[in-house]
Amino acid sequence: xxxxxxxxxxxxxxxxxxxxxxxxxxxxxxxxxxxxxxxxxxxxxxxxxxxxxxxxxxxxxxxxxxxxxxxxxxxxxxxxxxxxxxxxxxxxxxxxxxxxxxxxxxxxxxxxxxxxxxxxxxxxxxxxxxxxxxxxxxxxxxxxxxx
Length: 147
Fold this sequence. Notes:
Strand content: under 5%
Structural class: mainly alpha
């Protein structure tokens, strides 16, 4: 069974996320960690993608079992461990959509408002897409101009 198969059958509630599924994913993470680059956002068809998607959709409630893989991939780190994530590594162009989802929005604002403001301002200054601007104005602009 591939990682995508696991993702699909657990996501669709064909089977429940169990200790056995967790064990399979942990074994696959051990094998996959050698081939995953930290700043590579293309982690499709890896156990890291499977775990982050199951986490995103509430299928994995105890993510701590995967904490030993924190630091192997930026997208995995951000989605699975937003409270530990170093927001200096936040890529506005790639991750901005996550700021529309709780708990990512509130954690980013609580942990790294200053960093996030600067990253969005820099993206706007050099020219970014309208969606990125909208996130900035929705979540950070009011705080800048409330004085």
